[in-house]
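JOB MANIFEST
job_type = single_chain_structure
chain_count = 1
residues = 195
[input]
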Amino acid sequence: MAKALSILVCLISLSSFAQKPPPKKFAASHLAALWENENSTGSFSYISKSDSVLLIDLVNETTWKASFFGKIGYIKETYFDKNEGYSEFKSWFFNDLLAAQAVREKAIKDAERIAKSKLAAKRRSTIINKYGATLGKIILEGKVRIGMTKAMAIDAWGKPNDINKTITRYAVSEQWVYDGGYLYFENGKLTTIQN
C-alpha cells in the first residue's frame, strides 16, 4: 500500500513539472471578488471593473488561482473578460488539469487494485493456514461441504441473513438463511445444504 501511495505521489508530482505558460493578466468585466479559499469562502478582495487580474493556474473548470495587487486568491472565470487569447490560455491549463486528473485517477485505481490484490492474498494465506490446503481451497471458492463447522461456513459464504435456532434435549439445530440457500447445523456441524 505504501509503495502504491508513493507511486501516486510521484505521478502527481511529475505532472507538476510540465512547462506552463507564464501568468497572464485579464481585465475584470464587472465588480468581482478574489476569495481566500477555492470554494469562495473566507476573506475576499473586491476587484473593480477593468482592473487587471493575474491568472496563475486553473484550479477546476471555472475557478482560477489568481493574483490581485500581490494578494493570491481564487476567482471564478465569469468575473473577467475572455478576450486577448483567453481561450488559448485556458485551454493549456484545462488540458493540463485533465491530464493531471487522469494521472491521479489511474494512480488511485492502480493503488486500489494493488490493495485489493494484497487483501485477497492475505485472506488466502489466512484461510489455508487455518484449514489446510484442501479445505482452504474449497472455502476460498465459496463452497461448503457436509461436516464443516459454523466458522468454516462463515468463511465460505459469509454471515447469514438470519439464523433460526431450535434447542431440544438431544441437539441444538440451526437453520442459516442466505439469499441463495440454507445451511442446517446440528450441534455446530453442517448436516444439510439447501440451494
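[summary]
The helical segments are 2-16, 86-131, 133-140, 150-157.
The chain has a mean pLDDT of 81.
exit_status = 0
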